[in-house]
Each structure stands twice: as structure tokens, then as C-alpha cells.
Request: fold
Amino acid sequence: MFYDSKMYKNVTRLCAFLAIASVRRRRAGGRAWVWCAALYAALCTAAMAALPVHAQHAGIGNGATINNNTNGNASALERRVKAAFLYKFLGYAEFPPGAFFDGSSPVVIGVVGADDLAGELARAVAGRTVNNRPVVVRVLRDTDVQVPLHLLFVGGADPLRVGRMVRQASAAMLVVTECEDGLRQGSVINFRIIDERVRFDVSLDAAERNGIKLSSRLLTVANRVQKGVQ
Reply:
């Protein structure tokens, strides 16, 4: 899954693709590839919705590309895209029994080591729900990761620090990181920048260990799905 400067056009093309797919899927004899395209479109649309108005038009050129030469604009864009993805991940994750106190309990996202992203995420989820539950974003310090959460995002590129945070976290949560070898450090989902695009890898072992069931639709659009010792 990724975002780049051509995403706006890509979403439009995917809508047309899905219209054609709905006609052809009976002849093709299967729906898996149609669901893959549908989820791709949904995630791309979510990322677009999190961007400022000027970044949603094709005319912005390189301003929408994640590039280190854009004087901070790239970092802001990367945060917005990741924030949108974090929210969407929750819709494709099934948490273990007892993860919620009652039917009205909120979905709680904790963010450690990335205060700016936490701010973007809070704005992205404002007024939104996941399975009819409100979403709450909490900014955490390194010593707070054991508090009850449903999704924990550990920011930063230091794998030793990230690994320590992941090991300290409670078991029953969806842990997302953004460092090199994040999956090796124990996270369930790890963001990566590939060709200036935000993508993500998934560890099925970590998800199972944390009691999290991930939808096959999410796995279909992951950059890489890891199972077993790598």
C-alpha cells in the first residue's frame, strides 16, 4: 500500500476498474482479486481524505511525493498518510475477547515517540468510529506503553529502542512501528518507505502472539507478509 503524487488519478482509475471488474468477475471465476482492488481503493481514499486540500490535486507535482528535498513538506505528508493508515488498520483487525470493557468502550490508540503524528491522527479520527466505537488517541511516553490500548504506534528509527518498547507493551494490541527490521523487533505491522512511497509489512506470527486476527483483505495489499522465522 502506498501514496504518491499520482494517487488522485489512481483512485479514479480504480473506481473505473472496479466497475469493469463487477461485470467480469463471474466470467473470471473468483472474487479475491476484486476485493484486493476494492481495499486498495479504500485505503488510498482514506489517505487522500487526510491530506490538506492543496495536496489533493494533481497540480501539486513533487509536493505530494515523499521526498527529503521538500523542506519539511515531505515529513508532514508522510505523517498524514501514516495517520490515515493507522485508522484504517483498525477496521481490518479483530481483537480478542475482553479487549473492550463493554459495547460502548472506545478504541484506544497510543502513540509513543511521534507527537506530531499523534496530532495528525487525532485530527484524522475526530468524529469517526470503528465498528460503532469512538476512537481515542493518547500521546504516551516510553514508560507508558503498558497501559491498556488497542493499537500502539512506536515512532522512531532506533531498532533497539523500538524493540524495548514492543517487549514492554501489553500482549493484546496491534503494534505498529516504522523502523528498520520492525517485524524482527516484534511489531505486527511495520511501515517502510519504498521508492518514496509509504508501504507496510505484516508479521502473522506477531499478530497471533498478540491475539489479533487480521483480515485477509489487509494482507492482500501488504508489501510483504511474514510467517515463521525469516
Summary: The CA atoms of residues 93 and 214 lie 5 Å apart. The radius of gyration is 18 Å. Helices lie at 7-28, 32-49, 73-90, 115-125, 159-168, 204-209, 216-220.
